[in-house]
Every structure is written in C-alpha cells, then in structure tokens.
C-alpha cells in the first residue's frame, strides 16, 4: 500500500469531482489517499509523508490555478524525487480538435513550474451554466459554440458535462500501477477486498 496525495485546483467543481474519482479508484486499489483542494491547503504540506503525488488543475481563461502553480514551484525538488502525475481538466480536452490546445496549456505549465510529472492525463470539463452569472453565462455559451461542435444535451439546470469517467478511472489505474512498480508495492489480488471495503 502506498500513501498518495491528490492535490487539485478547481473553478466550478469539475476538477474536484475528477480528483474524487481518482481518489476513489486509488483507494479501491488499496492505497491510502489524501485529497486536498490547493486553495484550502495548509501553508506547508509535508510531502515526506507521501510515497506519490498527483496534482490536478483546471483551465480558466487559458491558465491554471495560481495555488496549484505555487504548490508545484514550492515543492519541485520533492516532486522530482518521487512518482508523480498531473491531470488537467478543460473544455479543450473535450474534443479531438482541442487536444492540441490542451497540450499547449500543459506545456506552458511545465515551462512555468519546471516540473516534469511521470504521468499526464487530459480530461474534458463541464459547463456549469447554473453557477455562472449572466455575463459569464453568455461568454461561456459563445465559447462553447466556437469550440464544441457536438455539445451533449444539458441537464435540467442547463449544465453540460464532458468528462469521460472511464478515461479518468483508467488514468488512475495506470498511475497506481506505475507507483506500485516504482515502489515495489504489490497490487491487490483480483477479488481481494481492500481496507476501505
């Protein structure tokens, strides 16, 4: 069993939901997982207590959360000495055409932080129209029309979700296998119950 930190930044909550699914998947695999919102983290987070770290951020106006950037910059040396992963949530990742733009956001993140995670995942985000003010709702509808040709149906609140949850779980399992391999930790046997069950 490994001790894993999942630290994330979120705007309207979709990255929090992705982090929760990753946490659940790692927990089901038998690992001890701590999830922390970057905006609510303590002034210092002692990474010595963790075997691996996943960092997640969403894209708003072409940038990641400053709290996530600050965390990575402050902990770059520690992150470089352990298994790590990064996941990014954005509307750009919702379409094949937008994947290059999403990759560009990640490249800018690497340039700014000088951190090179071992694994990277890009996931489609969500349009939370029910949480936007009038002007932001108009702006987001214009962006969606320009960038998302096949927009899924909105729910009763008008919200639209683009996250592929199977892809999120596959990413979490891949990260778990990588961490287990690096640390020499055996994965749970098929059908074996974990401590969380």
Automatic annotation (TrEMBL):
It comes from the Archaea. One of its GO terms (biological process) is heme biosynthetic process. Residues 4-170 form the Flavodoxin-like domain. InterPro entries: Flavodoxin/NO_synth (IPR008254), Flavodoxin_CS (IPR001226), Flavodoxin_dom (IPR026816), Flavoprotein-like_sf (IPR029039), Protoporphyrinogen_IX_DH (IPR052200). It holds the Pfam family Flavodoxin_5. One of its GO terms (molecular function) is FMN binding. This is Menaquinone-dependent protoporphyrinogen oxidase. It comes from Natrinema salaciae.
